[in-house]
Each structure stands twice: as C-alpha cells, then as structure tokens.
Amino acid sequence: MEKRAGERRTRSEVIWGRVMGCALGVYILYGLYIYWYKLTFVIPEGINYWQFTEWLINYQGGFVRRGLIGDGLWRLCDMTGAGPRYIVSLVSLGLYGSLLYYFFRKFREKHLCWWLLGSTLMFGYVDYVIRKDFLLIWCYVACLLLLKEKDPAVWRRAGAGVLMVFCMFVHEAFLFFGVPLVMLLLADGRHRWLLVLTAAAVLGSFILMCVRHGSHETVVAINGSWNTLAGSEVHPYNPENAIGALDWETVPTFMLHLRRNTGYPYYFISMFIRPLAMFLAYYIVTFFLKAFRHPESRYDERDRANIAAVFILLTVCMLPMWTVLSCDNLRMFQYVATCTVGAFLVLGQDRIRTAFPSGYMNFAVRLNRWTESRLPVSRGWMLLLFLCWFDGPGWYGNDILDIGFEYSIFGRLSVLAGAALQSIMHWLV
Prior knowledge:
Shape: globular
Number of helices: 20
Number of strands: 0
Largest sheet: none
Helix content: 55-70%
C-alpha cells in the first residue's frame, strides 16, 4: 500500500533503506575496483585491453571510424609528452561519476527511489566504465536538454543535430540508441528543412563510418603512432582489442555476433533467456519507481506509459545491435535503460507523449496495465527481481546461468562475501 503524502517512514524502513544503500554502494565500488582501479594501476598490459584501446583509435593511419576522440588524444599526448593511460582513465571515471551524480540529483528532486540507479541495468554495471559509453550517454542527455521545451528554437535543434553527428564520429552505435528519440523530438511539424538536413547528416555519417571501417594497414599505423610517442606503453598488434577489431572482416564478424547472440552451439539458448530478460528489464525500469514510491513523488501512470514507450522504441531500434553488430549484452541493456530513464528525468510528461503517435502511446498504456494485472507490483517481488536480474554479459553458452548470475547485484555481493569469508578462514587456519 502506498503511503499518503507527508506520512513518515517507520524505523524498520529507515534501517533497511540504509542497508540497501550500503549494499548498492559496495556493489558499485567493488566493480570500480576491478574494472577501473585494477585496469588503471595494477594490470601492466591493461592499456592494450578493449576498454583503453577504444579511446586510442586515431586518424594517423588515415580516416577511420571511431577515430575522432583518439586523434585529439594523440595530438595532446604528442604535444605534452604525457601517456594516454591516466588521461583516458580519469576522463572515463569523470564522465561516469558526473552522469551518475546528475541522475541522482534528478532522482532526489523528483523524490524518486535512487536504488534504481544502482541496478545492473544502469550504473551498477561498470565493467566498461573505461569506454566511450558514458560520453555518448552524456551527449544524448545534452540533446534532450536542448529539445526539452515544446517548441525548441532553431539553434537548439541545430545543436542537437551537431551533437548527434559528433557522436557518430565517436562511435557509430549511437545511431541505434541515441538518435531515435531525438529525431522524434525534432519531428514536431516545424522546421522540416532542418529535420531533413539533420537526418541526412546523421545517416551520411553512419554510411561514412561503415565505408571507412578500417584495415590491417590502419591498425598497424595506429599502433605505431602510439609507440612513437615518448613515454607511451608499447602497443603490439592484437586482433582481440578495439584497435585490432578495425581489421575484422564484415560478414564473418556478423556471423560471430549472431552465433553468440543466439547461443547457436548450445541449442539457441538465448531464444528463451533473452526475451525473458528483456521483459523483466522492462518490468523493472517501468514499475520499480512505483513499488518504492516516495510519499512526495508524483510518479504516476502517465510516467510509466512514457517510460514503456521509450524503452520499447529503443529496444526495437537496437535490433541490429542485439543480433549482428555486437554481443555485449549487458552494455546494450545499459544503453536502453539509461537512455529511457534519462528521457523521463529530462523531458516533461507531455513532451514525451506528444513525440509518439497516439496509437503507440495507447499500446504502451495497455501493455503496462496487462503486465501489472499478471504481475502485480509489490516491494518484495520487485526487490527480488532487482537484486537477481541478469543476462549473459557477452555471449550465451552452457555457463550462462553461473556467469550471468554473478553479474547480478546479489551474485556479485555473494562472490565478494564468499571471498571475504575464504580469506578469514585462510587466516584462521
């Protein structure tokens, strides 16, 4: 039962709230220790991993996709003599931390339960904190801020278009999770010429990235450019990092992703797991804030319909990523969930609703009501899903249940607690 406005929480609720807050804090900090601190300061060859090398792609071997940021970084390191490792690491952490703070502040302003931010669907998943993901999501949020008013000025529309094109040069995957809603906000019946120009620029940028996808010579030149800088770590040729991936052939890469995304060697196991994971992700993102509704929160059915509408749109638009363009499953869920919640936080109810056709919004309302009638929202049930939700991190195999569960909040905290107990027992023995 929801509390009436002004009703104070019980002592038990306060205690459990603090316990959950501490648990989520430990969950995030543990992930940052493994995937930020150790990669930055402990693992010597960490600079050659996927996370760092995505930032190191540059234009020193010719124009190539994803090279804009890396070329600026290379020129900075060339001028200053600094190595890229700590620059990339600190910038990545700054992007993650500032975006998390922005979302947290918005949650507090709207009197929403911030626990959702610690979910594996959102900021709790930090395996790729040293990547361009949070830069792209920040740019997406910036586009929403430019277009949040009902009738944005021309300069705001143009600014959102420029940001989208910039993101295409940073990482072309932005087309599938960052562009769809922004384009809908631009298509409000005014300044059609600017909408057409923006769509052409974004699509043209994507085509350009596909054409200039890279080659073996490009990879060798990029590695060599970093190796020539004084004080820079040695970058050998490695086909299993972001720079080496520029040399991958298109069709074999598509087939590799498709096999991993379907669980082909293991009887297409993802055909059963992924739809369930998607549905539960939609359920958590849409209904969590209702289950843990603050007495002063105005979160209502219209907000839930808006969230469902955006979540479904982005999930469908991500189909190329879900199938042949990627196999980083948890990252894709993070894109969808974070961008969905970001739209809810930045845009008003009417701004989201009017961006979609009325029939589509009615479908979102009916879907929410049908879902809630089959799975009534309760705090206990929602907390169980919230703590245990998982999907395969990057593949589907016979170990999906073990490895996937370890990425859930409960699974990772269990691993951490087990490691602590093992250390205590080893010390006692």
